[in-house]
Amino acid sequence: MPLNVNNFINSLNLKSKNRDFQDLEHLDGVSISTVCANLYSKFRDDLVMFYFRDGANYASVYTQSKIVSENIKWNLNIKSKKISSLIVNTRNANAFTGSDGYKGLKEIAEEAASQLTEKQIEDEDSPKKISSNQVLFGCTGTIGEKYPTEKIKNKIPELIKRIRYTQNKFIWMKAALGIMTTDLQPKIAMEECQIGNKSVKIYGIAKGSGMIFPNMATTLGYIFTDADLSNDVLSKLLKKNIDTTFNAITCDGDTSTNDMVSIFSTGKVKNPIIKNINDKKIFNFDKALHLVLLNLSKRIVKDGEGATKFITVNIAKSKSEKEARVIAFSIANSNLVKTAIAGEDPNWGRIIMAIGKSGVKIDLKKLSISFGSIKIIEKGQIFKNYNENEASNYMKDQSIDILVNLNMGSKSFTAYTMDLTKKYIEINADYRS
Amino acid sequence: MPLNVNNFINSLNLKSKNRDFQDLEHLDGVSISTVCANLYSKFRDDLVMFYFRDGANYASVYTQSKIVSENIKWNLNIKSKKISSLIVNTRNANAFTGSDGYKGLKEIAEEAASQLTEKQIEDEDSPKKISSNQVLFGCTGTIGEKYPTEKIKNKIPELIKRIRYTQNKFIWMKAALGIMTTDLQPKIAMEECQIGNKSVKIYGIAKGSGMIFPNMATTLGYIFTDADLSNDVLSKLLKKNIDTTFNAITCDGDTSTNDMVSIFSTGKVKNPIIKNINDKKIFNFDKALHLVLLNLSKRIVKDGEGATKFITVNIAKSKSEKEARVIAFSIANSNLVKTAIAGEDPNWGRIIMAIGKSGVKIDLKKLSISFGSIKIIEKGQIFKNYNENEASNYMKDQSIDILVNLNMGSKSFTAYTMDLTKKYIEINADYRS
């Protein structure tokens, strides 16, 4: 199963090297298979299947948009406690495709379930019947275009034929490449940790902002672990950690109809049973899951459209986390802040503006602002040793840290974003010309 | 009092012709005077005084930002029922200037009050003493820089010396030019109407988005009428009309610390007394005021940074005006919508996205979307006669109308914005290089 060169060419745009990626190896209980279903005009992997031969517990979080794609409706309707397969297609978001789009998924799920049942009979000592409501879908790409049901359904046999029970780093890379739209880089991350005295793996892949007519930014994230955790525990851990990772990033403040992050637990490692996420034994897993989600989230931002700078906005000592979040995103979503950073300009006036427009009441006399370790505002006044040249120099860095200390409480929130450049406009306005 | 050429050069960038502007003539009870106080490095009018020799009733609305400039604090503290003067400076926003900035205004107000009192003695039969709390301030420009108190105070005698009691269109143009920062065009508008059987004038000037280090978008609007209306009636009329005019525009979703719109009534026309804004006699004035405010607002958007297209976003048949407003601004502030329009791309998928992310619950099956007269979505589906070429052609227009019909109620809201272009990034990122 060689790497599809066309997927890799994309990822070379940013001159990323193999060493930039962690080595994801075998993760027991999950199999990956990728094909080219000709969803694009060029030849590239665009359809990925994850197969859990013994099923997987799972949990998902979905876009907050009030208009959601058909696959998210499908996923929300699934009543099965165990998932057998996750199928992800690119190029078509299956949003605004109406009952046809939903029916397409049903057909594909039935085809996949029937053929995976046959594979169970071939491969397993005690084969299980797999039903269509054990198939989850991720869709990303164009909205409003007819869903390519036939193209995808026709590739199910090939996807299943390609299933191998031992994974390696190339197969994970192929999966990460296969779910990309116009991402420049694949996004993979991993951690290992202990639950009780058992070692478990947490592997993740994601895709970020992609643009295809009529295009919108979409985010997909899939996490896999060989740990044995219930749907309930997975759901609580995912929700807890998503707030400070995938829900802490913004590229342009626009939300897709298709965003989803899912976690699958194959249960191959027989760790102690966890009934409650406050159980100390899950503490390390919780932390490691956060790291994987944060790692993927940051990779999405770094690969944001036209990005030249990675920006961290940390709001400290707020009265509530909610207020800190509102201020952080007011700054992170401000075009004026983002263009100033693109221009390498330590334009703190725009930070003040963004704090002010957030609507959160602050005590100006207590406000401190720093860029990295450079103090700019202290107790509501320009810091006495503030040196504009020093600040200008700092703005040349690739990573810019904005620290706003409200000195009003004990809560904090960190948002991640990138700068706003001409390249962003080019990608989003000029791509047709 | 010749026009300052440097102010006009700015305004010629867009090749505007004199006929693009209405002719504001004499408005009884208001005098205008402009000078160059050397607030910029180049010679241009940057300080404007409006003088109401017999006082003026007035009302103001201010920025919703939680961080406001010192002049807005000053204005909010004024207890006087009548205003004698409005002084507007550019180049310095007097925001984040602390007690020094406030003290500066106090000094200038005292100087102006004392010298205007002397002018009263010279010019009036029954001279009145003018006090410092009859002076209102508009400031716009850099934030966080020391307020140029001395430069402004030293120019008060010259401002007062230049006061003439008869205004003409050049004087109004000078005032509109004198309050600009990096606006490309002056913004003036006028209407005439009747209150009872009396003809009254409503004149207005405004400034829009301007960028000077550390720069932020600022909006100032000043309306003058010779009608005789109380502070209470002015305040109610202004608040009522601001929602659908100045508060219906967005350039980049960022809010300044300095925004203000004020209305002044000189009372020179002895129209019937209006006690209640539901009085039929004020109906025409109400409508005319709306036109003046809307005219100025649209001029601000058209002159928005880097704008090449003027975009109207009309949300119709909503359950509530609030929901219509939320959806309208979700579209109008979306970078993806604005870049698509810059690229002349009828990318309706992004409109759907922006409706979805607004958080307002809609009934997808009832949704219709048009670009101008071109139907795109009808009852939640792509319109059967939708023709992509026709839509692409429409996008070449300078004015783009987006109409979203929710078919869920009877309320509506219209927002105005412009496209997001590389020029915007240039102005806001590259201006220092």
TrEMBL record, chains A, B:
Domain of life: Bacteria
Catalytic residues of the enzyme: T218 (nucleophile)
Any one GO MF annotation of this record: L-glutamate N-acetyltransferase activity, acting on acetyl-L-ornithine as donor
Protein localization: Cytoplasm
Binding of substrate, residues: T181, K207, T218, E305, N428, S433
Pfam family membership, one: ArgJ
Annotated site residues (Involved in the stabilization of negative charge on the oxyanion by the formation of the oxyanion hole) in this chain: T140, G141
SUPFAM superfamilies in the cross-refs: DmpA/ArgJ-like
UniProt keyword annotation of rRNA processing present: no
Catalysed transformations (reactions): L-glutamate + acetyl-CoA = N-acetyl-L-glutamate + CoA + H(+); N(2)-acetyl-L-ornithine + L-glutamate = N-acetyl-L-glutamate + L-ornithine
Site (Cleavage): A217, T218
A GO cellular-component term linked to this record: cytoplasm
Pathway in which this enzyme or protein is active: Amino-acid biosynthesis; L-arginine biosynthesis; L-ornithine and N-acetyl-L-glutamate from L-glutamate and N(2)-acetyl-L-ornithine (cyclic): step 1/1; Amino-acid biosynthesis; L-arginine biosynthesis; N(2)-acetyl-L-ornithine from L-glutamate: step 1/4
Record keywords: Acyltransferase, Amino-acid biosynthesis, Arginine biosynthesis, Autocatalytic cleavage, Cytoplasm, Multifunctional enzyme, Transferase
Enzyme Commission number, as recorded: 2.3.1.35, 2.3.1.1
Keyword Transferase attached: yes
GO biological process, any: L-arginine biosynthetic process
NCBIfam families: ArgJ (TIGR00120), PRK05388.1 (NF003802)
Its biological purpose: Catalyzes two activities which are involved in the cyclic version of arginine biosynthesis: the synthesis of N-acetylglutamate from glutamate and acetyl-CoA as the acetyl donor, and of ornithine by transacetylation between N(2)-acetylornithine and glutamate.
Family statement: Belongs to the ArgJ family.
Subunit structure: Heterotetramer of two alpha and two beta chains.
Protein name: Arginine biosynthesis bifunctional protein ArgJ
Source organism (scientific name): Candidatus Pelagibacter giovannonii
